[in-house]
Write a structure and sequence with these properties.
Blueprint: E1 9-11, E2 24-30, H1 35-45, E3 51-58, H2 64-72, E4 76-78, H3 87-100, E5 105-108, H4 117-122, E6 127-131, H5 143-150, E7 154-161, E8 171-178, H6 185-218
Parallel strand pairs: 2-3, 2-5, 3-4, 5-6
Antiparallel strand pairs: 1-8, 6-7, 7-8
């Protein structure tokens, strides 16, 4: 049984994609293969997500996300966390990078580092993360392993706003994925990832509506 054999439950359901007076100006952060980063760009390229990725930041020189950025023609900046004296120092550098590129919101698309209030406070309510569980269940590392050990029959993925507490911010959208009797960590991870690629662009668009409405209200 694969992901095409059942309908994924996405809440809020994917419907009409919002349009904006000007495209959302996004910064993206990634540490791994970059499939969620590419899913965002694919949604932009096909006209669904009304946005522009101004810059991708990676923290590993050899990560797949960097290769994807080069192939897609998107600016990519390396910020090796090992070269900074503290998390706060690195986050100050990230804030400068995003501000220099005119970024209005940041999407953590597989960023495997804890961020600090330096970055969170620079983009209040405009810093998103995707996590491979139905939060608030299975926060933190190895969420897929946690859910398999727990005996639950449904898991999924969540896009949420980032707060100081790990995986604790307001939920923007979620997708449910059933756990099958013969699931391994790898099989379940692949099925969750399929839904992450659908969920992250949609959740970014929904959050963008809130950002732009709030900005218009504030004048």
């Amino acid at each position: 049984m694969d992901s095409e054999c059942y309908p994924a439950l996405i809440v809020p359901a994917i419907g009409t994609w919002p349009r904006f007076d000007s495209p959302l100006r996004l910064g993206v952060m990634a540490s791994g293969t970059g499939t969620n980063f590419e899913a965002l760009q694919s949604a932009i390229a096909c006209g669904d997500l009304d946005a522009q990725i101004r810059v991708l930041v990676v923290n590993k020189a050899g990560c797949g996300a960097r290769d994807r950025a080069e192939r897609l023609g998107i600016q990519c900046e390396l910020r090796d966390h090992r070269l900074f004296a503290s998390r706060e120092e690195m986050d100050h550098d990230l804030v400068r990078t995003f501000q220099n590129e005119g970024v209005e919101a940041v999407v953590m698309a597989g960023w495997m580092r804890i961020v600090t209030p330096v970055l969170i406070d620079a983009f209040p309510g405009r810093l998103l993360n995707i996590h491979p569980s139905l939060l608030p269940s299975f926060k933190g590392m190895d969420a897929i392993g946690q859910c398999l050990s727990s005996g639950v029959t449904v898991t999924g993925c969540t896009v949420h706003e980032v707060l100081n507490d790990v995986d604790a911010g307001p939920i923007v959208a979620q997708a449910a994925v059933p756990i099958l009797s013969d699931d391994t960590r790898d099989r379940l991870s692949r099925r969750i990832q399929v839904q992450e690629h659908r969920l992250l662009p949609w959740a970014t668009a929904l959050a963008g509506q809130r950002w732009r409405t709030a900005a218009a209200t504030q004048g």
